[in-house]
TrEMBL record:
Pfam families per record: Glutaredoxin (PF00462)
Protein name: Glutaredoxin
Residue ranges occupied by any Glutaredoxin domain in the UniProt entry: 43-97
InterPro entries, sorted: Glutaredoxin, Thioredoxin-like_sf
Length: 122
């Protein structure tokens, strides 16, 4: 089995190989709105997890500034994920809602779909 190496670690699949996608094109105002809308998001992840890499690539493609939290090596982040989301499973997107409630979204495809729905330029 061939391995490729990228800035996120080691991957077996060409889907996650060597490159980070170019981000979408937005005006300065549109990017400022995207930055503001993504400030209350955090991605709990393991650096070399292929599903986490998939989500990070989508975040990069969408040009979002979402904090990543290492739930593998940082005990505080791991505890937050377990206490808030109910399990230590990654990737997990923590979504701070406007009403103050928190949503914990698991599964890479669900996270990607949620991000695309909210941040994909028209």
């Amino acid at each position: 089995m061939a391995f490729t190496f990228n800035r996120y670690g080691c991957s077996r699949s060409p889907e996650y190989a060597l490159s980070t996608p170019e981000s979408v094109s937005r005006s300065a105002d549109e990017q400022a709105r995207a930055n503001e809308a993504s400030k209350d998001l955090a991605l709990y992840q393991f650096k070399a997890c292929p599903f986490c890499i998939k989500v990070r690539k989508e975040i990069a493609r969408l040009g979002l500034n979402i904090e990543t939290r290492d739930a593998q090596h940082n005990p505080e982040h791991r505890a937050e994920l377990e206490a808030g989301g109910g399990q230590v499973k990654v990737p997990c997107l923590k979504i701070q809602q406007e009403d103050g409630s928190v949503r914990w979204l698991y599964e890479s495809d669900d996270i990607k779909a949620w991000l695309q729905e909210r941040f994909e330029p028209a």
